Amino acid sequence: MAVTGIGGFFFRAKDTKALSDWYAKHLGVGAGEYGVWQTQAGPSVFAPFKADTDYFAADHQWMLNLRVDDLDALLASLREAGIEVITKPEWDMPGVGRFARIHDPENNPIELWEPDPAAA
Fold it and tell me: Which of these, 94, 95, 98, 99, lies nearest to 119 by C-alpha position?
């Protein structure tokens, strides 16, 4: 018997309705009463980081990473909506993919990852 995938991601929010609506509108994630959305098969990373990591903000215990299929188009859409997008060339890794960061309205960190097609 083995785990076959992540069944959900649950977190606290100050305004659950507004945050659910934001994720559905800008990222296409978790629409509907129970926040269900169908995902494509593909790699997922499950990795604890050291407590003093600087990979994401020290005031957060987690960072959501979402796999995307057209990072440039998504970033353009997010910027058009007034959402700050952070990119750094050193985050991108040949054989792994390209990365960007955003924050939701409650300042939760979100990493967007477009896998390197050559790695597939």
Answer: 95
